[in-house]
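Why do we bother with a discrete structure alphabet at all? Because it lets us treat a fold like text: something you can write down, compare, and reason about line by line. To make this less abstract, here is a complete entry for Knr4/Smi1-like domain-containing protein. Read it the way you would read a sentence in a foreign language you are learning: slowly, and without expecting to understand everything at once.
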Amino acid sequence: MSNRTKSDREDILSHPSLPVVYSKIRGLAKELAVLGKIDFASKITDLLLLQNHTKHGIGQMQFLNFAFEQTGDWPSVIPRSERSKEVLNELEVPPSGSIDEKRYNDLINQVKLCQRDPALCLTIAVVLCEQSGKADVEDIQQDKRVIKALEQVTDHFHDYIASLIQHRKIWPLLASGVVARQLGVDDAKLFAAAEDIVETVRIRIENGRQKGDHEGRPIKELLEILVKNTKKHAGSLYKESQKDPPKSYLHNPATEQDINDMEQRLKIPPLPADYKEFLLVSNGLEPVYNGLGMTAPLSNTQNVVLSSLPGPVAVPLQLVQDSSGTAQLIREAGYNEWPSATKHIEIGRTYEPAYLLTDPSDVKATIKAYKNALASDEVSDVMKAETTRAIEDLYGSMEAFEKLEWAMMFTVDFDPGWPVGTLRSWLEETVRMSGKPYERSSGNTCLAYACRAG
């Protein structure tokens, strides 16, 4: 099993955020379809939409209907009414602009990657083939214009998957597996990876999130693992930034008096037990590796401040995100009645990204809003189920969520809208992610590249 397949499996099984899990599953289904494994994409779609059956969830997968139309591998969850030519014709978005040789040449000869559109080039090439009397897929594959467009597709394949699936005209080509062959994918490796992905998705959907062995350990042990993984995997990040790693990632421990002084200085309720435990081990934390890059540093007790986020801004406070964002739940429950955040403390920051703890008064008011929404006749059963799953995955259980006092948030550009649970859950997820080697190029994480021959 490749590192990519192992990483995908672990993310799907263990990531605490349903939006992240669903996005990962959708991405794999779309990539497998583009690589010609439409039957596996259908199985994954069936599993996903049986659970994520919101309007947003269905909409995110709708362009794969062109793939299922091509091979007849329709997921059972998609009703027959959605498979008709009429419905698919409405879904199809005709390419804008002229569809001719000049347009093709203008696009195919673009030097800058940002100005290229190889999916549209491929569509134009197929149309031109059909206009010249070529109807057989094998004949179309041999067309020079098609070959050149495919070369651009495979040159930066990971960038073009999302646009490829939207072009109905090219699905006979994609279904043939031509992209996989162009990429040099080993069919046996891809088949094995696809089988494993389907089984992994089934386990997550049927059994819920799997906890890691490290979860529940003392904060000190989690920090020790995190430091060890940072030293192991972050070397190239320091080289890229031309910086030296710190002599120590951990700080000297805070005292109980340090914590009491901070609470009095900020005039806040008693801090959560997990954050206190962290401070008593290390009074702050240098940036550490999180599988993607380096985190923002966590401040010591003297430098923790009340949040400088602009306010009051009537932004609904999200303690969990469902697959379409809490906004859908809020709209169904009543936007004007949803609490907003009024007070945070900032426990860590770089230039823009910051970690916040939201005040218990705001958290309790928002928990009450969630409970009311989950009991409301105005909220659909599908949305209630999605929200309940998201809460249980992020906080462990509905009971733990209802007992929550402080909630941890990640913010960028003054938007305190990305809940990460608690300090402990954030640290546990960072530890899990830190076990992955750093890969600078997103292309190297593409499933197709992991399944290449050789």
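What the structure line is telling us, in plain words: The chain has 24 helices and five strands. Residues 194 and 408 are 36 Å apart (CA to CA).
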